[in-house]
Write a structure and sequence with these properties.
The chain is mainly α and 623 residues long. Helix content is 73%, strand content 0%. The C terminus is likely disordered. It comes from Vecturithrix granuli.
Length: 623
């Protein structure tokens, strides 16, 4: 992203500010009709993409906006302005009946080409190439052989689907960006400038700083708190890792382990309620359910994910006899407790979501609470200028999300128009031979591969459009199917060979990116297992009876501990190969959906743990 100064900075500042005002207004007084809301949103975002992201990342291009980007920014606005001015005509036309006019055809082509270029700049080549291929498939897919052969469509029919309907570029993914995501990003901007983001870090330090391996536990807690607000693994790594990684290295963790802890903890922020990033809002929109349903379903897997990381971090510290931070390095506990009211905006947000308010209204009220809380603090008081800065700081981050959603809309539109999604379902059934577990495994691979070059939101949209229909047809519940795809879109950020969160953490720790990725995958093992578990056991998503949910959570927690200890290979001494293997089997069994296997797994984990503890000196058992 360009770092602009002078009048160029002020121009982009003004555009983002106007966009923020528009979305705050619609959040308070009601959004426009879907197509119009999304088009206005995209018309703000496209010129910002040209002004903030250079054609090539040369030093000069990162400091100034060349004339051709100003021209492209103006051109990118024209399709949107036309659609807004002619909205009545577009909204009343009959798809595949009314003729696409020449201006609509030309402007639709311009919008598509402009979108592919800004996708390349902002998100990267992989998503831009995928978008181009699916657009080309609508035009030329009928030339392909076998089951890949598509129907023949004319250029006006393709442009109509992409530009003049709400099933292409202006589809549900962009709709989520134009409503929920932008408001929550602005909310995040207010939290950061009000000092509440820093306060979350202080809470994490007070809670875990003095414990064994305290800095690593600070990373786990703070990344969970910060990550649920940022919605981006890489942004989370840079936001908290610059503080936590050097601390971890200082007390004795290796650079690889320090980087991997931050990478895996930061990635998990996107699955931690109440704010789970853009993809979680898209899940709610795809399913047509209140956002709180997604939030509640995601809670137990997210807690188990962080619990497992905490266990492995703790026993790594025990093994290496790593101590916590010194007393003088910790913030004053009473001072932190006296400011506990600073968590009020997040508590208000959670309450409003749970009682049924819309996410947009809940976010706006939480912003107002944040402003009120900041007033007594001179250094973080949100005056008029600070409030404008908060809107811009949050709004600036929407560009990546909106562009990813819009380009993914090309793919979704292509799947809808050509029926390729049905062919994919057929292919999935053929490859998996109707075996549900094998189908899950294949879709897991697809999600990870897609996610290697895409942001979480884009990877989730593409994988869900292809994989979710197949999983639902196999009998899995829609909520579980979407969360399954969501988890593996996130896991791709820590899965080598392309693990973006791990690479970001390695750039801070100085470790090998590949080694950091492999270690992060090991620390984040729960994210590879739990999606399979909750597909078969509704208790993990709190969808079973109260008794079943409790049994699933308790035994699942024990199993997660067993798996963490087996992977770490240490309890109070080094575990032998057979002890690790048996404990791992026991941990996996607790995740099975049947009670006999769950209790066998529980017994195995407990017996191995007690067996290892029996020779441990009694006097040290409080350590």
């Amino acid at each position: 992203m360009r770092k602009l100064k002078g009048w160029e900075y002020h121009v982009t500042y003004l555009i983002i500010l106007l966009m923020g005002f528009f979305h705050l207004y619609t959040a308070l007084f009601g959004v426009k009709e879907a197509y119009l809301q999304r088009m206005i949103h995209l018309t703000f975002v496209l010129p910002l993409a040209f002004l903030l992201y250079p054609l090539y990342k040369t030093p000069a291009a990162l400091e100034h906006i060349p004339i051709y980007d100003w021209v492209l920014a103006v051109v990118s606005v024209i399709p949107g302005v036309y659609a807004i001015l002619h909205y009545d005509e577009i909204s009343t036309r009959i798809v595949q009946v009314d003729e696409v006019t020449r201006p609509q055809l030309i402007l639709g082509i311009i919008l598509t080409l402009v979108l592919l270029e800004v996708t390349r700049r902002v998100v990267g080549w992989p998503l831009a190439l995928i978008g181009f291929l699916f657009a080309a498939y609508m035009l030329y897919g009928y030339h392909l052989p076998g089951m890949l052969r598509g129907f023949q469509f004319t250029l006006p029919e393709v442009i109509e689907q992409l530009y003049l309907t709400s099933e292409g570029i202006l589809g549900i993914p962009l709709g989520v960006s134009a409503t929920y995501v932008i408001i929550f990003l602005i909310f995040g901007g207010f939290l950061n400038l009000s000092g509440i983001g820093e306060y979350f870090m202080s809470i994490a330090i007070v809670l875990t700083g003095k414990a064994r391996g305290g800095p690593a536990k600070i990373a786990v807690v703070s990344s969970g708190l910060f990550g649920m607000l940022s919605g981006s693994a890489v942004a989370n790594v840079y936001g908290t890792g610059t503080f936590t990684i050097p601390l971890m290295k200082r007390i004795g963790y290796s650079d690889v382990f320090a980087g991997s802890v931050e990478a895996v903890a930061s990635s998990g922020g996107q699955i931690m309620p109440p704010i789970m990033g853009a993809a979680a809002f898209i899940i709610a929109s795809f399913l047509g359910v209140p956002y709180k349903d997604v939030m509640i379903s995601a809670l137990v897997p997210a807690v188990l994910y962080y619990f497992a990381i905490g266990v492995m971090v703790h026993y790594r510290a025990v093994r290496r006899d790593l101590r916590g931070m010194a007393e003088e390095e910790l913030p004053n506990k009473m001072a932190v407790l006296r400011k506990l009211y600073m968590v009020a905006p997040v508590l208000v947000l959670i309450y409003m979501l749970l009682v049924g308010y819309t996410p947009m209204w809940a976010a706006v009220i939480s912003i107002l609470v944040t402003i009120a809380i900041s007033l007594p603090h001179k250094e973080h008081r949100l005056g008029p200028k600070a409030m404008l800065d908060a809107i811009v700081d949050g709004g600036r981050n929407i560009v990546v999300v909106a562009i990813a959603c819009a380009c993914a809309g090309i793919v979704v539109g292509s799947l809808t128009l050509t029926g390729f999604g049905f062919k994919f379902v057929t292919a999935m059934f053929s490859l998996s031979q109707g075996i549900p577990f094998l189908a899950l495994f294949l879709i897991m691979l697809i999600c990870i591969i897609l996610g290697m070059g895409l942001p979480t939101t884009g990877a989730y949209i593409l994988a869900s459009a292809l994989g979710v229909p197949a999983l639902i047809k196999l009998g899995f519940t829609p909520m579980a199917c979407h969360l399954f795809v969501f988890y593996f879109a996130i896991v791709s950020a820590i899965t080598p060979p392309v693990a973006l969160a791990a690479y970001a953490a390695a750039s801070i720790s100085g470790a090998s990116p590949m080694q950091t990725g492999f270690m992060a995958s090991r620390l984040g093992f729960v994210a590879y297992l739990l999606p399979f578990a909750f597909m078969y056991d509704p208790g993990f998503l709190l969808k079973g009876s109260l008794f079943h949910n409790l049994i699933t959570i308790i035994l699942g927690s024990v199993g997660v501990v067993g798996l963490a200890l087996a992977l770490e290979g240490f309890i109070h001494r080094e575990l032998t190969f057979w002890e690790r293997g048996v404990m791992m089997v026991g941990g996996v069994l607790t995740l099975f959906p049947t009670y006999p296997l769950k209790f066998v797994g529980l017994a195995v984990v407990v017996v191995i743990y007690l067996f290892v503890r029996k020779d441990y000196p009694l006097k040290n058992q409080g350590a």
